[in-house]
Amino acid sequence: MFFCHTLSIFASIHAAFLKLYLTMIQSDSNPIVPQFVVRNYDVSPVPVYVDTAVSFFFVLLDGEISVAYDSVPALTVRPGDSLMVMRHSCYRMTVVKPSVGLRIIHTDYFAESCHRAFGNLADYLPRGFEYVFRALPCTPAIIHFLRCVHDVIADGKATPRMHSQWSDLFTDMVAAYYTGAQVAGFLYPLMSDDYDFRNLVIEHSLHVGDLNELADICRMSLSTFKRRFKRTFHSLAHSWIAARKAHFIYSEIINTKKTFVEIAGQFNISSSAYLTAFCKQHFGITPQEIRRRSNMYVAAVGRNDSQ
Known about the structure:
Layout: H1 2-24, E1 36-41, E2 44-49, E3 56-69, E4 72-77, E5 81-85, E6 91-104, H2 107-118, E7 136-137, H3 140-154, H4 160-177, H5 180-191, H6 195-204, H7 211-217, H8 222-233, H9 237-255, H10 260-266, H11 272-283, H12 287-306
Antiparallel strand pairs: 1-6, 2-6, 3-4, 3-5, 3-6, 5-7
Helix pairs in contact: 1-3, 2-4, 2-5, 3-4, 7-8
C-alpha cells in the first residue's frame, strides 16, 4: 500500500514536471535568475573554503563531501542531504568522492513562504532551543524533483520562468513533507532574533582592529558584546573572528594575484611579516607556501583534464 502510494506521488510529480518542461522550454528574453545552481566537484584532499557571498541551501545529489562550519567538527554529507549555508560564514569543504550538488538561493523568499505555510515558525521551537549545524535528509520525492531540475539546467534549457516555478514548487513540497518543527530548526539561522546582530558582526568583523571596536559598532559594552556573541555564534568572539579572517585570507591567497602586502592591508594586518605569522599559526605554513601548493594542485588538475 505504502509502496503504491509512493509510486503514485513520484508519477504525479514527474508528470507535473514534464508539463512544466514542455510548456516553458521556449526561449526567454530576460536573463536567467539563478535560483537553482548546479555545482560539480572533483576529489580534493585539501579543504576548500566555500564561497558564501549569499546564503543558500545546498543539496548533495551524488558523491560524498565533508563540511566543517566555524568551530563545529566536520560533517559527512551524502546524497540526499541538505545544508543551510549562511552568508559570509566559514565553511570548509573536503570532496571525498566526485560530487554533484545543487545550490538553492533566495533563502529569504523561501523563509517567508514557509512562514505563510506554517504560521510563525518560532512557535514550533522548544523553549531553550539551541541551533546545531547538521544535515536535513531530503525525502525521495524531493530528491526526484531536484534531480529533474539538475537535468534541465545541465541540458541548458532552464529559463527564468522555470526557476521561479521551481522555487514555488520546492517550497510547497517542503511544506508538504516536513513538520513545522523540522523546518523551524533548519531555518533557525535566518529567523533568529539575533539575525540583525549576526549580520552586523559579519559585515565588520574582517576589518576591525580589536573586539572593543566591534563592540562599539554594535553599541554594546565589551562584556555585553561577548555574552551576546557567545549566545549567537556558540563560540568565543576572539576565536571565531580569527577563524573567519583566516578563511578569507586563505581564499585571497589562492584565488587572487594580490601581493601579500595588499592582502595584509585588506584585513587590517600591519605588515606582510605579521601575515606570515598569522598563516603559520592557522595553517602551519607561510602564505608563499599556500600559494605555491595551490598553483601546483591547479596545474596537476589541468594536466589530468588534458589527458
